Model the fold of this input.
Amino acid sequence: MESIWEQTSFGRNYDLAVVGAGITGLFTALHLRRKYPERSVLVLERGPHPSGASVKNAGFACFGSPSELLHDIDTEGEAAALHRVEERWRGLTELRETLGDAAIGFEAVGGYELFAKDSLLYTRVAKRFDALNAALHGIFKKNVFTWTDQRTPELGLHAGHLAWNPLEGAVDSGMLMRALLAKVQGEGADVRFNAPVGSWEDHGTGVAIQLASGATVKAARAVVATNGYTRDLIPATDILPGRGQVVLTSPIPGLQLKGTFHKDEGFYYFRHYQGRVLLGGGRHLDKPGETTTEEGTTPQIQNVLEELLRNTILPGREFSIEKRWSGIMGFRKHGGPPVVEHLTPNVVVAAGLGGIGVAIGIRVARQAAELVGN
Ligand SMILES: Cc1cc2nc3c(=O)[nH]c(=O)nc-3n(C[C@H](O)[C@H](O)[C@H](O)COP(=O)(O)OP(=O)(O)OC[C@H]3O[C@@H](n4cnc5c(N)ncnc54)[C@H](O)[C@@H]3O)c2cc1C
Done:
C-alpha cells in the first residue's frame, strides 16, 4: 500500500532509466540530467554501491601504451585506432574538468611501457616508434612517446627498455566513483542500490524493467550500461566478460617505483599506491578460464603476477601480498570500440569498454545519452 508521498517522490515511473552504476552508467545519468533537466532519471545498481570494473580497476588514467596502440592499429586499422585514442584523450580531459583532480586523486605521474632487453616485442616496437609518434601528431601536436631506458635503475626496475609518456597519470578509483556518484545525485538523478535488474521489455510506448525483487520500474526510455555483465540481460550481445586479477603488496620501505606502467601490449599493468605496488593482468594466459563473470583468483595467474613482482618490478626487495581481488571487464568478441546502439526503439546499450575505460567512460556515456534522448 503505497502512500501518496511514496508515489510522488519515490515512484516507479521515470522518464529515463539507466541500468548499472559504473562510470558509464553514472556519467550517462549526469549527461541526461544536464541535457534534459525536466526529465526524471533513475539509475538501478545491483550492488550495495557501484560494484563493477569501475571500482575494481587499477586507476590508470591512460590512453594506450606503444605496443598496445600498434597492436590496435594492426588489427583495427590506423584510422579506427587513432580515433579511439582521441576519444580517450578527450575523455581524460573531460573527466578531470568535470570532477576535478583533487576529487579523483589524480596524480600526473606519467605512463611507461617496459620491455625486456632486446626482446622481439621491443625490436618490433622500436622499429615503428617514430611512425607511431608521427601518427599521433594529429591528436597531440607533438611527440608523445620517448625512450627513457636510463630511468630504469632509479625506478628500481629490472628491465631493458622503458618508453615514457608524460601525458598519462593515476587516479584513485574509489574517490573518483564517490565524487561521480555525489555529483549525479546532487544534480537530481535517483540512484537505487541493491536493485538487480532481472529483465526488461520494450512495449513500444515505454520500457518495463523487472527487478529481481519482483518489482517493476517503468521508464519511457532506458540505457543498459552493464559492461562485462551485459550477456545476463542481452544474451545475443557480442560483448564477452573478461576477468582481470589484481594483487597489492604490503607497504615497501623506500619504494622507488612511481608512475603507471604497462607491459606486453597492456596485458600487465602496475603502479605505485601509497608506498605499495598494485599489479594486475595475465588474463591472456588463460583466456577461456578468464572469460567469466565470476569474481575470483587462480593460482596460475597469481603465481605469474608474483613472479613479475620478484623478478622485474621489485628485484631483490622483500614484499608480501596484502590484498588480492578481481574485476570483470567487457570486451567485444572480435575487438574494437565500445558499443553504443539502440537495441529496441526505447532501449540503448552502452558497453564493451575493454581495458581502458576510465578515460573513455565519460565519452561513451555522452553518446548513449544523446542516442537515448533524441
Ligand atoms: C582489474 C581491472 C583493472 C582495470 N584497470 C584499468 C585502468 O587502470 N585504467 C582504465 O582505464 N581501465 C581499467 N580497467 C577497465 C575499466 O575499469 C572499465 O572499462 C570501466 O570501469 C567500465 O565501466 P562501466 O561503467 O562500463 O562498467 P562497470 O564499472 O563494470 O559497471 C557496470 C555496473 O553494472 C552493474 N550491474 C551489472 N548487472 C546488473 C544488473 N543486472 N542490474 C543492475 N546492475 C547491474 C554492476 O554491478 C556494475 O556496477 C580495468 C578493469 C579491471 C577489471
Summary: The radius of gyration is 21 Å. The first strand starts at residue 13 and ends at 19. The longest helix spans residues 78-99. The domain at 4-55+175-238+335-373 is CATH 3.50.50.60 (FAD/NAD(P)-binding domain).
